[in-house]
Specification:
The protein is of the alpha/beta class. It has a single domain, classed as HUPs (Rossmann fold, 3-Layer(aba) Sandwich), CATH 3.40.50.620. It is 39% helix and 24% strand. It has five helices and nine strands. The strands form three sheets. It has a five-stranded parallel sheet, sandwiched between helices. Helix 3 crosses helix 4.
């Protein structure tokens, strides 16, 4: 059963805002030995917590890039199961190599199942770009940010510039155009 997100109206009544069809966790670098660590482990734990809170009945692990011989989605699925998410509730998407490709491949899974809304789990700094990509692929998103360790102002600026460049490159655009 899908969980509806709720809010209180002006009279204090609880009203349904939106229901979520699936939690989507976006892949990233897998540590030596094919195990999620660092950002990957934080993302998986965030997705597992969202699942256990009843946010949605499904989790999609999205990411086809292989690290040390293991696809991101497969490593995420194994870790989700370790986090007590039932294996029959985890779908894997093993084709995508970029955030835009994550969105497009997940959109295909959503279309087949007639789903519309996702809880998108990724690092807090990555979610703005991911949300744009998923919106362009036709998926409405509720964001589930996973906190990243503190970095210097300079590193935040570099990360922001990298995210902007990645978004543009993902779309196949040239700089300045």
């Amino acid at each position: 059963m899908k969980k509806a997100l709720t809010a209180r109206d002006d009279c204090g009544r609880l009203v349904r805002v939106v229901s979520i069809d699936a939690i989507v966790v976006l892949g990233c670098r897998i540590a030596q030995g094919g195990q999620p660590a660092g950002a990957a482990l934080r993302r998986v734990k965030g997705a597992a917590a969202a699942y256990h809170s009843g946010l949605a009945p499904w989790v999609i692990a999205s990411g086809g890039r292989c690290w040390h011989g293991v696809a991101e989605a497969d490593a995420f699925r194994a870790q989700l199961m370790h986090e007590q998410v039932p294996g029959d509730r985890v779908l894997v998407e093993r084709v995508s190599m970029t955030t835009r490709s994550n969105a497009n491949r997940v959109a295909e899974l959503f279309e087949v199942r007639q789903w519309r809304r996702a809880a998108l789990v990724s690092c807090d700094w990555h979610l703005p770009r991911a949300e744009r990509c998923f919106a362009e692929a036709g998926i409405e998103c509720v964001l589930v940010p996973v906190a990243s360790p503190a970095v210097s102002r300079f590193q935040r600026v570099l990360r922001g510039l990298r995210e902007q460049a990645s978004y543009r490159l993902d779309r196949g655009l040239r700089f300045g155009g």
